[in-house]
Write a structure and sequence with these properties.
796 residues; alpha+beta; Aminopeptidase; 11-stranded mixed sheet; two-stranded antiparallel ribbon; 28 helices; elongated
Length: 796
C-alpha cells in the first residue's frame, strides 16, 4: 500500500509537469518526486522542504524558476484542495459510521457534506468556463476540468493507499475501511495544517481520539508507530541512499549516460541535508528507545548473558548518545568534517548500546544503515571548522525539546499503572524497566538542557587578525593593479584581509559582535570572487558568526545569492561621467554661479600629487580637526575615508586656497591602471565661503577631465532609490520613510540633492548577509563599525 501511495504521488508530479508545460526526463522526474515527498513527509512543511528538493534537482536539469514554481504551486494546491474534498466525499458515502465516530447526527453530516461537494462541483464547472483567473497584477492559469478530475482521482488513490497502510496494522475491532478513510484524510489535513514535522502528535491524537475507545489504545499506538516506520522512515532511508553521492555516481557510471549528470550533482548537494535529517531521526530513536520498555523475551536473553550493570549503563548511555546526535546533526547540515567523525563514533557506540540494553533489532538496523550511508557520502563532508562553534537555530532547539517531551510522554504512557515514587530512582533489576526509562529520560533532558544553555550563553568566538605591514603591502600592490578607485580604502589600516589562494585578490573586513562584514566585492580578478566569497562565509560560520557583504554591486549579486545570503538595497552610488560633463544649459546654472562666485572670492584649486602631500599634512590636519570640532563629531572609518596621515599622504589632494590661505581639501583615490577617481575625505574650515565646496567640486571635475579620467565616484547616498509601489518589499517602505523623515538625525535627502547637482549616474548598492534577520542586524552592526560607536552613527 505504501508503494501504491508513492506511485500515485509520482503520477501527481507528472500532472504538475504537464500543467507547467514542461517535460523533464523520466529519471529526473522520478528522483525529484520521490525524494521531495520522502523528505517533505518526514521533515514537515512539505510544501517548503519538498519544494527545495525539487528546485535543486529540476534547476540543474535545465528547468526555469518560473516553471519549477508552477510545478510546486500545483502540488501544494493539489493536496490543500484535494485531501479535504476526498475526506468529505468518503464521509458522505459512509455517513452512518463516520457520524458515530465523530459524534454527529448522520443527517447533519450528509447535509454538510452534500452542500460542500455541491460548491466544489460548481467551482469546477465555473473553472471549466475560463482558463485563467486575474487577481490584481497576477494571472493564475487554471488546470482545466480534465486535469482537475484526474488529480482528484490520484489524490483519492494516494489517501486510500496511505490509509490502507495504517488500516491493515490496526488490531481486531477496527472499523470498515470507508469510515476509517474519511477520518484518516481529516487527520492528514489537521497534521498538515499544524505544520508540525510529519504532523507528529497531531495526527496521532486525531486517530486515537476517533478509535481509541473502540480498540485498545496501546494497540492503536503501536500500529501508529509501525505505520510511521513503514510510510515515513523507510522512504526517507531510501531517499538518503539515492542522494548519497558515492552511490549515485556509481549508478550514473553503470548507466553510462551524461544525461543524469545534472541529477547526480544535485543529489550530491542534497546529501548533507538528508543525512542531517536521518541522523536527527536516529538520535530521536535512541532517546525514545531508552524511555520505552524492551521485550520481556529479550530481557531474559540478556539476563542469561550479560551483567545487570551493562544493561543499566547501556540504556542510560543510549539516550545520552541520542541527545548528542540531535546536536551534532546540525554540523552535518553544514558539511563539517568533525561532525562526520563524531557522528560515526557516536553511531557506532549507539549501535552497541541499543543491542546491550534490550537487543533492539529495529533501532540497531536503522543506526547501521546511517553508518553505511555516512561512509558512502564521506567526500561530502570536507569543511574543516570547529564543531563546537556551529550556531544552533531556535527551530533546531525546538526540535530537540520536542524529542525530549515525546520521550517523556511515551514513558508515562508505557508505564501508566506504575506509581512513580522517589524509591524508583534507585531500583536496579532486569525487570525494573520503569526506573530504567525514568533515569534515561531525565539524563537525556539534563544533557540537552546543559548543551543548550552552554551554546546559548557562550561568548562570540573568533577574533580578528589585525592587518600586518606585509598584508598592507600585498593589498597595496593588488589595489594599484586593478581599476576600482575606492579599493584604496583597504589601505587606511582599520580592516583585516582575507587573500585568495593565488594571492592575486583579497577581501577586507571588520567585525562587531557576531557580525563579520566585508567591504565591497572582492578586490582583484573576477574569476577568483566566488572562491573568496565562499571562503569568507565558511570562515565566519566556523566561528558561529554572521557573514555580511556591504556595498556590493548589482553584477555580483548572483554570487551572493548562490552562497545562500539574503539581500537588501542600501542606496545608490553617484558616478559622474567626466567625458560628457560640461557647464552648459539651465541645469548647470547653479554650478556656473558657484564657479564665478568662487573666482570673485579669490578661490583657487590646486591638485597635489601623492609624493608632494606629506609636507602639507600639518595644515591638512588643522583643517580636518576644525571641521570635526565644528560638528562635534569624531572620525569615522571602515566604509568611508578617515584622516590617517599615512593614508592621506598616499592620495592625491585637491587643496582649495583663498588667496594664499588653505581653506578646504578633498582626497582623491586613484589606481595605476584605472581611469576612475573616487572621492575620499572632504573637509573645510568653518570660515570658508559658502560656495567653497561646490567650487572645489566643479574645479576638481574639470581638472580630472583634463587629465583624461573617465569617472569620478562621489560615494554612496544611503537609502536613495528605494522605490515604493504596491509590490515593494517591507524594507523599501521602511527605508523610504526613514529617508524622508530622518532629517534631524541625518540629512539623507540633502546629501543626495548635493550630489545630484553634478548630474551623476546612480548605481544601486546592496547588502548581503546570512540568515532571515541577518541583513537587518548586519546593517546595524556595520553602521556602528563605520561610526566607531553608537555616537557616530548619525554624524553628518
Amino acid at each position: 500500500m505504501t508503494v501504491c501511495s508513492y506511485v500515485s504521488l509520482l503520477a501527481t508530479d507528472w500532472c504538475a509537469a504537464r500543467y507547467a508545460h514542461v517535460r523533464p526526463r523520466a529519471g529526473v522526474l522520478l528522483l525529484a518526486s520521490f525524494c521531495g515527498y520522502a523528505l517533505g513527509n518526514a521533515a514537515g512543511f512539505g510544501s517548503i522542504s519538498g519544494a527545495a528538493v525539487r528546485y535543486r534537482i529540476y534547476s540543474v536539469a535545465g528547468l526555469q524558476p518560473a516553471q519549477i514554481g508552477r510545478i510546486v504551486g500545483y502540488l501544494a494546491a493539489a493536496f490543500t484542495a484535494g485531501a479535504p474534498i476526498i475526506a468529505i466525499a468518503v464521509a458522505l458515502f459512509a455517513a452512518e459510521n463516520v457520524a458515530r465516530i465523530i459524534g454527529l447526527a448522520p443527517s447533519t453530516l450528509r447535509w454538510a457534506a452534500t452542500g460542500t461537494l455541491s460548491l466544489v462541483a460548481l467551482g469546477l464547472f465555473a473553472a471549466s468556463r475560463r482558463s485563467t483567473i486575474d487577481f490584481k497584477r497576477m494571472c493564475l492559469r487554471l488546470p482545466g476540468i480534465r486535469l482537475s478530475c484526474m488529480q482528484l482521482a490520484l489524490t483519492a488513490l494516494d489517501i486510500a493507499a496511505a490509509g490502507a497502510t495504517l488500516w491493515f496494522l490496526l488490531p481486531a475491532g477496527r472499523p470498515d475501511f470507508l469510515p476509517f478513510a474519511a477520518i484518516y484524510a481529516g487527520a492528514l489535513v489537521l497534521g498538515a495544517a499544524s505544520h508540525v514535522p510529519a504532523g507528529i502528535g497531531v495526527f496521532e491524537v486525531a486517530i486515537l481520539s476517533a478509535f481509541g475507545t473502540s480498540m485498545p489504545a496501546s494497540a492503536v499506538a503501536g500500529a501508529l508507530l509501525i505505520y510511521r516506520a513503514i510510510y515515513f522512515l523507510a522512504p526517507l532511508c531510501l531517499a538518503a541512499a539515492l542522494l548519497a553521492g558515492h552511490e549515485v555516481r556509481r549508478v550514473s557510471a553503470t548507466l553510462g549516460g551524461l544525461a543524469v549528470e545534472p541529477v547526480v550533482r544535485a543529489a550530491a548537494r542534497l546529501t548533507p541535508a538528508v543525512l542531517a535529517l536521518l541522523v536527527f531521526i536516529a538520535g530521536t530513536v535512541l532517546v525514545i528507545s531508552g524511555a520505552t520498555p524492551a521485550f520481556h523475551s529479550r530481557l531474559v536473553l540478556l539476563e542469561a548473558t550479560v551483567p545487570l550493570w551493562v544493561v543499566e549503563g547501556s540504556n542510560f548511555l543510549s539516550s545520552v548518545v541520542g541527545v548528542v546526535l540531535l546536536f551534532v546533526a546540525r554540523g552535518l547540515l553544514n558539511r563539517l568534517d568533525g561532525a562526520w567523525w563524531v557522528t560515526i563514533v557516536l553511531a557506532a557506540a549507539g549501535l552497541l548500546f541499543v543491542l546491550a540494553s534490550g537487543v533492539a533489532i529495529g533501532e540497531a538496523t536503522l543506526i547501521a544503515f546511517v553508518i553505511v550511508v555516512l561512509v558512502l557520502a564521506r567526500h561530502q563532508f570536507k569543511r574543516r571548522a570547529s564543531l563546537l562553534s556551529e550556531p544552533l537555530t531556535a527551530r533546531w532547539l525546538a526540535g530537540v525539546a520536542i524529542v525530549i517531551v515525546i520521550s517523556a510522554g511515551l514513558l508515562l504512557f508505557a508505564h501508566e499503572d506504575m506509581q512513580f515514587t522517589r524509591d524508583l530512582w534507585w531500583e536496579l533489576a532486569f525487570d525494573a524497566q520503569a526506573p530504567r526509562g525514568l533515569r534515561a529520560v531525565v539524563g537525556a533532558g539534563v544533557i540537552a538542557m546543559a548543551l543548550t544553555v552552554w551554546r546559548l550563553l557562550r561568548p562570540p568566538t573568533g577574533r580578528l587578525t589585525p592587518a600586518t605591514h606585509a598584508d598592507l603591502q600585498s593589498a597595496a600592490c593588488i589595489v594599484r593593479n586593478q581599476e576600482r578607485a575606492n579599493a584604496n580604502l583597504a589601505l587606511v589600516g582599520d580592516k583585516s584581509f582575507l587573500f585568495s589562494g593565488t594571492g592575486a585578490s583579497f577581501m577586507m573586513y571588520a567585525k562587531r559582535g557576531r557580525t563579520w562584514v566585508a567591504l565591497f566585492d572582492p578586490i582583484g580578478p573576477r574569476e577568483e570572487w566566488r572562491e573568496l566569497i565562499g571562503r569568507f562565509v565558511e570562515m565566519v560560520h566556523s566561528f558561529g558568526g554572521r557573514a555580511a557583504f556591504y556595498q556590493i554591486t548589482p553584477e555580483s549579486l548572483p554570487l551572493y545569492l548562490d552562497a545562500g545570503l539574503s539581500v537588501l538595497k542600501l542606496g545608490e552610488e553617484a558616478r559622474v561621467e567626466l567625458g560628457s560633463f560640461d557647464l552648459q544649459g539651465s541645469r548647470r546654472a547653479e554650478l556656473r554661479y558657484a564657479l564665478s562666485r568662487g573666482q570673485r572670492d579669490r578661490l583657487r584649486l590646486e591638485l597635489i600629487a601623492p609624493g608632494k602631500v606629506e609636507p602639507l599634512l600639518p595644515e591638512l590636519a588643522r583643517i580636518s580637526a576644525a571641521w570635526l570640532a565644528q560638528r562635534n563629531i569624531r572620525e569615522k572609518g571602515f566604509s568611508v575615508a578617515c584622516f590617517a596621515p599615512g593614508f592621506v599622504a598616499e592620495q592625491q589632494v585637491a587643496l582649495l586656497y583663498q588667496d594664499v590661505k588653505p581653506m578646504a581639501f578633498a582626497t582623491i583615490m586613484t589606481t595605476a591602471r584605472g581611469k576612475e577617481a573616487a572621492l575620499g575625505l572632504m573637509r573645510h574650515l568653518p570660515e570658508a565661503p559658502r560656495y567653497a565646496m561646490e567650487f572645489l567640486f566643479v574645479q576638481l571635475i574639470l581638472q580630472l577631465k583634463e587629465q583624461s579620467y573617465c569617472t569620478l565616484d562621489l560615494g554612496m547616498s544611503p537609502l536613495s532609490g528605494l522605490d515604493v509601489h504596491p509590490l515593494t518589499s517591507r524594507w523599501n517602505r521602511i527605508g523610504h520613510w526613514f529617508e524622508r523623515n530622518s532629517r534631524p538625525l541625518y540629512n539623507f535627502h540633502g546629501l543626495r540633492a548635493f550630489k545630484a547637482k553634478f548630474n551623476p549616474n546612480w548605481e544601486p548598492r546592496y547588502l548581503a548577509a546570512s540568515g532571515m534577520l541577518g541583513p537587518y542586524l548586519a546593517l546595524a552592526d556595520t553602521a556602528i563599525i563605520t561610526g566607531r560607536g553608537l555616537k557616530g552613527i548619525f554624524s553628518r
